[in-house]
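> example.struct
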């Protein structure tokens, strides 16, 4: 079992004693993944480095500002021992994770300029990891914003790297090499554009980045095709769900294979288990749908509750028994996933 040091937030009480405060979510997360937290020891407001060699890694956690931007004794003491921790772990070549204030501290330590951003708290931020001796690249994941295109339509291409710990990092399109030999498809500036299309064609796009490669497929459809891509929000959601029958509740329908759903205005449906979905095909043998949480999904009457997720190429198995939680078993990572 791994052991790490987490630098806590400190408060000096009325008795002039230092109290450590650990982030509850971070503590619970580390406990869930079976990582021990090794406490730090202060003596006369200075850190004791004797037990540092016992730790496998360091987390400089968030909470508050560094001394330069908020001058008080708490921040001064914390800055001093966190700098010593950082230098010691850096010297011993051990992994270090910086969270919020930790980034401020190290940026200031290297005399780099900090900029203030509004409304950044409680937001998701993308962290791009190009190279790391601690995390190895295992797979390149590529996807298209739309699975099919009509002539003159275009779709954004995205790429991510999956690491050996199952985390992912977005790669800028400029760092990805996209190649397709089909003359009906133009790739430029991270977008795939359909040109003249005579017949329904499945086109492959080869992507490569950081020594990894992957293949993405897009379906090109001529203007005369009567197979809809779902770009018209006023389409019916029949055919793939042609077995559906009306239920007693107004607007609700039941499909033998897909379950109960509510047909809303504008082409949206509300599914009893999956929530809001936007179906985008009218093929009788398959169903493409857009999920705000999962993006593009595909399934059919024979495969469901097996669902293909287009953005990372993973197959999911929906676990109905876990409802009201939306639980999916990822058959690639062999892990459970939960969505809102």
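> example.seq
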């Amino acid at each position: 079992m791994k052991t790490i040091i987490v630098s806590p937030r400190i408060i000096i009480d009325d008795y002039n004693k230092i109290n450590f405060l650990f982030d509850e979510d971070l503590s619970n997360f580390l406990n869930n993944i079976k990582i021990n937290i090794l406490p730090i020891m202060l003596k006369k407001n200075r850190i004791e480095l004797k037990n540092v060699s016992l730790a496998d890694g360091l987390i400089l956690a968030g909470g508050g500002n560094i001394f330069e931007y908020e001058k008080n004794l708490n921040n001064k003491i914390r800055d001093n021992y966190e700098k010593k921790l950082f230098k010691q772990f850096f010297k011993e070549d051990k992994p270090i994770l910086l969270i919020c204030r930790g980034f401020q501290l190290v940026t200031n330590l290297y005399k780099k300029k900090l900029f203030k951003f509004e409304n950044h708290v409680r937001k998701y931020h993308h962290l791009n990891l190009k190279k790391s001796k601690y995390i190895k690249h295992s797979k390149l994941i590529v996807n298209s914003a739309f699975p099919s295109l009509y002539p003159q339509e275009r779709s954004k291409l995205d790429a991510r790297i999956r690491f050996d710990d199952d985390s992912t990092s977005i790669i800028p399109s400029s760092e990805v090499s996209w190649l397709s030999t089909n003359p009906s498809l133009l790739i430029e500036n991270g977008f795939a554009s359909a040109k003249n299309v005579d017949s329904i064609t499945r086109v492959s796009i080869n992507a490569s980045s950081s020594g990894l490669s992957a293949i993405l497929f897009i379906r090109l459809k001529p203007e005369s095709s009567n197979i809809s891509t779902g770009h018209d929000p006023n389409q019916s959601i029949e055919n793939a769900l042609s077995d559906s029958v009306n239920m007693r509740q107004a607007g609700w329908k039941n499909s033998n294979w897909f379950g109960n759903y509510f047909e809303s205005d504008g082409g949206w449906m509300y599914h009893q288990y999956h929530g809001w979905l936007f179906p985008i095909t009218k093929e009788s043998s398959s169903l493409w749908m857009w999920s705000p949480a999962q993006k593009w999904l595909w399934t059919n009457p024979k495969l469901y509750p097996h669902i293909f997720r287009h953005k990372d190429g993973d197959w999911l198995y929906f676990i109905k028994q876990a409802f009201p939680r939306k639980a999916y078993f990822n058959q690639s990572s062999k892990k459970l996933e939960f969505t809102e």
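> remarks
Residues 3-109 form one domain.
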